[in-house]
UniProtKB/TrEMBL annotation:
Source species: Rhizobium esperanzae
Pfam families membership: Aldo_ket_red
SUPFAM superfamilies reported in the protein's UniProt record: NAD(P)-linked oxidoreductase
Annotated CDD domains: AKR_AKR11C1 (cd19086)
Protein name per Swiss-Prot or TrEMBL: Aryl-alcohol dehydrogenase-like predicted oxidoreductase
GO CC annotations on file: cytosol
Recorded coiled-coil stretches: none
Keywords: Oxidoreductase
Domain NADP-dependent oxidoreductase: start-end pairs: 22-327
UniProt GO molecular function: oxidoreductase activity
Length: 331
């Protein structure tokens, strides 16, 4: 039986707190939401099961949970609020920028004006049942660089008012990641990173500026769990079946063939040392940089236990990392 880990795989946060270098991503537990008929969630969920999985993660030492105000049109935040509430030993990161209607479960637009940000903060505080947001992240990936100054002015003001403890940007653009370095409270970048997308330029910025690298998509939206074959399709309410420009890992709801070949090339290396494929993918991230904090998604206790089990084994050794680089270069 897996028990709470005493792993040395830890990271010191902006507030001096040391936490395991593993968070839990809470997009999937928000349940379905849509842009018209296009699914933006991961399908139906059972809230009781989600709460049980969150509690199991906490039992195993996990202290970082990442969500967003639009996940499930606010439902993800509500589930976290139900499970965690105002516990001060748990760090909750959320995001703002995308508006949704909680009744229709529809996306209603993207906004970044001060009034919207302040309303979003108050709504997130209420849903999460928190007195203060630990980490608030700007969710608009490619927002114009110069216009972002006003956004982060507002975040600085909210920090001064005690509404938030720290802030960051969820972006895959290095110029945006670097733009607000030096502001008091600017501590993190959330960005795509996994075995298939090592993003060395982003890691260089993050390490050079002393930021935290919060890794979304650490399992390539499920490909690096090994649970998908060429014939297995996702459900009708699953975002992985949507025809979205940024949906590279799946095509028409099935694993994209080019990634199947890459996965075959590294499977044996990632599962070395008795790791599952999932655990190897997380271990790869820890070996890439001391600043990485992967946030794999979850919906079940079993998924939480597998993710947390990666901490026991720690980062991949250097020779395995080199072998993965070589294998991917050959594909």
């Amino acid at each position: 039986m897996l028990t709470k880990t005493a792993s040395s795989t830890t990271l010191t946060l902006w507030n001096g707190r040391e936490v395991p270098r593993l968070g839990m991503g809470c997009w999937a537990i928000g349940g379905p939401f849509f842009a018209g008929d296009t699914p933006l969630g991961w399908g139906d969920v059972d809230d009781d099961e989600s709460v049980e999985a969150i509690n199991r993660a906490i039992e195993l030492g996990i202290r970082f949970f990442d969500t967003a105000s639009n996940y499930g049109a606010g439902h993800s935040e509500e589930v976290l609020g139900r499970a965690i509430g105002n516990r001060d030993d748990i760090v909750i990161a959320t995001k703002f920028g995308f508006a949704t209607n909680s009744e229709t479960k529809q996306a209603t637009g993207a906004f970044a004006d001060e009034a919207f940000i302040r309303r979003s903060v108050e709504t997130s505080l209420r849903r999460l049942k928190r007195d203060r947001l630990d980490l608030l992240q700007f969710h608009l990936n490619d927002f114009p660089l110069e216009q972002s100054d006003a956004v982060f002015d507002t975040l600085e003001a909210l920090r001064a008012e005690g509404k938030i403890d720290a802030f960051g940007w969820s972006t895959d653009f290095t110029d945006r990641a670097a733009r607000h370095v030096g502001r008091q409270g600017y501590v993190s970048i959330q960005h795509t990173m996994n075995v298939f997308e090592p993003v060395p330029e982003m890691i260089s910025v993050i390490e050079g500026k002393g930021l935290i690298s919060i890794n979304r998509g650490p399992l390539a939206m499920g490909l690096l769990t090994g649970k998908f074959t060429a014939d297995k399709a996702v459900g009708a309410k699953d975002v992985r079946g949507a025809a979205l420009d940024w949906m590279v890992y799946f095509k028409d709801g099935r694993m994209a063939p080019e990634f199947a070949a890459r996965l075959d090339a590294v499977r044996d290396l990632l599962t070395s040392g008795g790791r599952t494929l999932t655990q190897g993918a997380l271990a790869w991230l820890w070996a890439r940089s001391p600043r990485t904090l992967p946030i794999p998604g979850f919906r079940t206790v079993a998924q939480v236990e597998e993710n947390a089990g990666a901490l026991v084994k720690g980062p991949l050794p250097a020779d395995v990392m080199a072998g993965i680089d070589t294998a991917l270069a050959r594909v």
